[in-house]
Amino acid sequence: MRSIVLDSALFQGAVSLEQVGEGVKPWRIPYPQFALFPPNGINGTAHLSAGVRLRFASNTGTVRLRIEPVSVEVQLDLVSEGELLQTQTLQPGESEVTFGPLSASERVLEIFLPQKAPTVVKELAIDEGASWSIPEDSRPKWTVYGSSITQCNGAFSPAQTWPAIVARRFGLNLTCFGFSGNCHLEPMVARMIRDREADLISMCLGINVYGGSTLSKRTFQAAVIGLVQIVREKHPDTPIIIQSPIWSPPREEKQNAVGMTLADMRAEVEEAVQNMTALGDRNLHYVNGLTIFHEAYAEHLPDELHPNGTGYAIMGENYGNQVMEPMLARYGLLTARS
After folding, report:
1. 141-146 and 200-204: which strand pairing?
2. Residue 304: which region, alpha, beta or left (left: phi > 0; alpha: psi -120 to 50)?
3. What does the alpha-carbon distance between residue 141 and residue 134 come to, in Å, rounded to a whole number?
4. How many angstroms separate the first and last alpha carbons of the chain?
5. 178-191 average pLDDT score
6. Would you say 291 and 318 are in contact if contact means Cβ atoms under 8 Å apart?
7. CB contact set of 241 (below 8 Å; sequence gap of 6+)
8. Please, which residues have CB within 8 angstroms of residue 273's CB and are 6 or more apart in sequence?
9. Beta strand pairing call for 53-58 and 16-20
10. pLDDT digit string (tens) for 70-121?
11. Residues 6 or more apart in contact with residue 267 via CB below 8 angstroms
12. Is 57 in a helix, a strand, or coil?
């Protein structure tokens, strides 16, 4: 087999790349500004490779990926034109996966890196004599921001998180800012979303703020508004979808340390969106999280907070049907695949 040069253009869904020895580590923050994302790079979540892919075109029958040894069990996926072709699992201490055999036809391939661990890519190899190139990508760019329920550690594999399911279905170029336990509406994250190209932006807000009691009724709605307004500085007309928390039975009516329930969070998020749309923001849209995942799916919420693999698949289907399909049609962003 022969190695492909680890060109930065191979990596999608990453904000920056760090050279680590002979390998390349994708980050979901601008790594040179690491100190501006305290504590420790959004509490150690920004180096997890959720939504990050290696994308290239080739007629190879085999693809080999070598990374630094992993510390937890992880999955990696091979996808082509939205179709999940193969999933490979690495156990702690392992570092190499091989996908194949594949058809010999030229096709665009994407390798989804683990959503629940950092990844240092050391080698990407294809068959001797096989063609390869970095194809042009005209897919609509979609940025998603949220919590562990957007990072989706419990998904069956990285291409089966709910954002990846939606992106694959509709032919979208995904950037996932799902930061497990750390969606706290931080200004630097708002600036990062603001500064990225995007045709569509989705934000799922509230559950980490509830869990950490980091914002109160006095400050939460103001922070939601501030987050949107910072993003609007460079995305004045980009459609932005604001979703409130999905169902979590112990938290619906139980007050946290600052006196807010999850039901309160939904009301505050909805009111924030209403106030901004009333002032003329016609491209801002509210989604009640209970329409995406509610009590009928209780068996797929094992810890009463995080969906399991089937639960994330349900979220992807519901978000696709109820939110993404009509939104893409409204803004003329539907692709041939969808």
Report:
1. parallel
2. left
3. 17
4. 35
5. 98
6. yes
7. 200, 201, 202, 203, 285, 286, 287, 323, 327
8. 224, 242, 284, 285, 286
9. unpaired
10. 999 999 999 999 999 999 999 999 999 999 999 989 999 999 999 999 999 9
11. none
12. strand
